[in-house]
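Private note to self, pasted from the team thread so I don't lose it. Backbone tokens:
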């Protein structure tokens, strides 16, 4: 079964054609257009600009993805996200499904991030603990089967991605901040860190508290204090702070994920969402999880950020036939 999947929840316009393949999902074509450059001068996403760019890109992106494939169904992310952006993908998917007389499948964008881990030859064995880290969400979930998911923990305030974006702004790095902070942190080797005498220290909130709650707003306030003490932030010091910030956030994420492993004894740990592209987090979480004999999965970097292949995977693995009057749900949660 070949599915045309559409993703337009935020500032990426994406379309993909995917099909089922063994226990996983094979990507035939995946196309992503982003309006991120247009938001850079504002230091964040401007919803009205994002929606207008979605309208410009949606048809070219779909045409490139479909090419000469014959499609059996149309899938679309219907939330969470920005209302104006969501409407573009949902209305286009409805029109295509109606014109082609094919089923319309609705997909939860956060579930799609998780199911990006099935876009490969080897798929996670369940039960699994899932860490979802994106721009707007930071959740721990237990996946007992492809259908039965339970929320088991997450952030009480800011999402990890949001913290990365704010840290970048404080450090004078461009939007979107996550990849920039990742790059700056990667420039500091262990030797250089030792030489600096670990002069920058940030808190690891709630790390010693029992439970699976997280908090990132305190780290953000602390980095702001660190930077305001510097007369002029040299590149070396900026990189050192970026590394300490990345370690503070990843320490919290890893510690809470490993607590979930202790509590639930899963067969796999899977990570998903834009922040799952972070080099330090990918490496360190993989190391910690594999030390316990549990398998670790994370999508290829190109399938961590918003894309439509993951939406197709979700439509195949958790099909949810929709009504022709499907409406976006900007506030949808993961379970
Ligand atoms: O999942 P995503 O693409 O969009 C949402 O659904 O929110 O996540 C975007 C978030 C942004 O906050 C971005 O800064 C962050 O993911 N991000 C990263 C990295 N790449 C993207 N954060 C840390 N390190 C990265 N390499
Ligand atoms: Zn996303």
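Design output:
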């Amino acid at each position: 079964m070949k599915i045309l999947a559409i993703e337009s929840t935020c500032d990426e316009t994406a379309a993909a054609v995917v099909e089922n393949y063994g226990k996983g999902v094979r990507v035939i074509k995946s196309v992503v257009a982003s309006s991120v450059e247009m938001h850079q001068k504002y230091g964040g996403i401007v919803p009205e600009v994002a929606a207008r760019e979605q309208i410009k890109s949606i048809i070219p992106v779909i045409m490139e993805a479909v090419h000469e494939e014959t499609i059996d169904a149309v899938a679309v992310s219907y939330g969470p996200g920005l209302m104006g952006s969501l409407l573009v993908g949902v209305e286009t998917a409805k029109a295509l499904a109606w014109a082609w007389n094919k089923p319309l499948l609705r997909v939860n964008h956060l579930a799609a991030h998780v199911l990006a881990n099935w876009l490969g030859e080897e798929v996670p064995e369940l039960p699994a603990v899932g860490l979802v880290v994106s721009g707007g969400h930071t959740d721990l979930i237990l996946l007992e089967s492809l259908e039965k998911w339970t929320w088991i923990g997450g952030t009480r305030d800011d999402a990890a991605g949001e913290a990365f974006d704010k840290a970048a702004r404080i450090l004078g790095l461009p939007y979107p901040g996550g990849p920039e902070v990742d790059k700056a942190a990667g420039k500091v080797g262990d030797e250089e860190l030792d030489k600096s005498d670990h002069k920058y220290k940030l808190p690891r909130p709630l790390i010693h508290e029992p439970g699976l709650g997280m908090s990132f707003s305190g780290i953000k306030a602390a980095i702001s204090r660190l930077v305001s003490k510097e007369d002029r932030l040299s590149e070396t010091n900026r990189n050192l702070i970026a590394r300490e910030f990345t370690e503070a956030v990843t320490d919290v994420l890893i510690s809470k994920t490993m607590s979930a492993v202790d509590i639930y004894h899963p067969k796999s740990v899977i990570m998903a969402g834009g922040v799952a592209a972070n080099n330090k987090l990918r490496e360190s979480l993989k190391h910690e999880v594999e030390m316990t004999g549990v398998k670790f999965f994370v999508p290829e970097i190109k399938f961590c950020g918003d894309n439509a292949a993951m939406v197709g995977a979700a439509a195949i693995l958790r099909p949810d036939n929709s009504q022709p009057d499907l409406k976006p749900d900007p506030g949808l949660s993961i379970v």
